[in-house]
Amino acid sequence: MIKGLHHAxxxxxxxxxxxxxxxxxxxxxxxxxxxWDGGSAVADAIYALRDTAVEMVMLKxxxxxxELFKFNNPVxxxxxxxxxxxxxxxxxxxxxxxxxxxxxxRLSAAGMRFHCPPQHVxxxxxxxxxxxxxxxIVELLEPDPAGPFAMA
Length: 152
Prior knowledge:
- By secondary structure, the protein is α+β, with helices and mostly antiparallel strands.
- Helix content is 18%, strand content 36%.
- It has 2 domains: 7-73, 2,3-Dihydroxybiphenyl 1,2-Dioxygenase, domain 1; 92-143, 2,3-Dihydroxybiphenyl 1,2-Dioxygenase, domain 1.
- It contains 3 helices and 9 strands; from the N terminus they run E-H-E-H-E-E-E-H-E-E-E-E.
- Strands 5, 6, 7, 8 and 9 form a 5-stranded mixed β-sheet that branches. Strands 1-4-3-2 form a 4-stranded mixed β-sheet, covered by helices on one side.
- Strand 7 and strand 8 (125-131) form a beta hairpin.
- The two termini are 24 Å apart.
């Protein structure tokens, strides 16, 4: 039985920079750090890769986890930091926020790049897309308290 979403994962070429962004700028808490060199039979089987060397940080926010990976072996190809939202694959993570305008201003001042200021979306609330330092899209959402996506 599926109980819900546990975590999303992002692979990066610079785990220190991305960890600082999610921890220091967005307020996530580090709950686990791990690494291995020269392969892990279990991890290699799960990833369908050979001789993996990985650095991993698991971060927690109020209701979910975010896992960051840096593959030192094999080294993956970087993504386009301006990858269009219409490209196939995982497109973004969404953060539930209060006072989206204040968060947008705070994060903009911290250097986060946004597509636009917060927009009102009828029936949803207010939303905007921004980019983490690798160009991954982070949505800020302030749901309409009476709408279908309201959260506690």
